Amino acid sequence: MHSYFPEHKTADDTSAIEHLLDLTFGLSRSTKTSYRLREGNTAAQGMSLVVREPGFGLVGAISFWPLIIGRADAPALLLGPLAVHPERQNLGIGRLLMNEGIAKAKARGHALMILIGDEPYYARVGFARVPEGQIQVPGPVDLKRLLYLEMQPGVLKKAKGLALAPWRWRQIIDLRATT
Predict the structure, then answer these.
(1) Would you state the pLDDT for residue 104?
(2) Ramachandran category for residue 171: left, alpha or beta (phi over 0 → left; psi -120 to 50 → alpha)
(3) How far apart are CA 45 and CA 100, in angstroms?
(4) Which of 28, 76, 88, 105 has minimal Cβ neighbours within 10 Å of its Cβ?
């Protein structure tokens, strides 16, 4: 049995993470709605984590991305992708990465996190289903899979509307200002 420890992602990890994501989610992964939220966005600085196993290599990875929900009213983080090597699943690596990432987010003052994923899995670390109609995302999504985690009590009440990367909201606001 190995002991696993999260580490900060480095630039050298990029190709190994892409390979891990392909193994975990398949080659069509970039067509998912969660990828629309990451397009043109930059992962939150210092929040991307990996887990390595000596003699095996990269066994897990997680990233977090800045979002704004409903124009500039509610900043949030998008959790994902979270990937664990198929040969190392069910060993607690995913939960370890989520707990470490959530702790980092709280320490940095982030108040809200959302994701698109399997509710029973993510509920283990406190995620719950977004109330119907409260948050929208660009593209099709099974609303039962749109989940949130409040890191400051009551902050979900402020999060109403479309979730987009900050640059997308700036683009929309600038476009509206010029028309």
Answers:
(1) 97
(2) alpha
(3) 15
(4) 28
Which position has the token pair 């992962």?
Answer: 43
Residue 5 to residue 155: CA distance in whole angstroms: 31
Q: Calculate Rg over the CA atoms of the chain.
A: 16
CA distance 97 to 116: 17
Q: Give the burial string for 85-115 (b: 16+ CB within 10 Å, else e).
A: beebeebebbebbbebbbebbeeeebbbbbb
CB 163 within 8 A of CB 37: yes
Three-state secondary structure call for residue 153: coil
> Rounded to an integer, what distance in angstroms lies between the CA atom of residue 173 and that of residue 90?
44
Residue pLDDT, tens place only, 56-107: 999 999 999 999 998 666 799 999 999 999 999 999 999 999 999 999 999 9
Q: Which fold has domain 6-178?
A: Aminopeptidase (3.40.630)
d(CA 69, CA 165): 9
pLDDT score of 62? 98
DSSP state letter for 29 = G
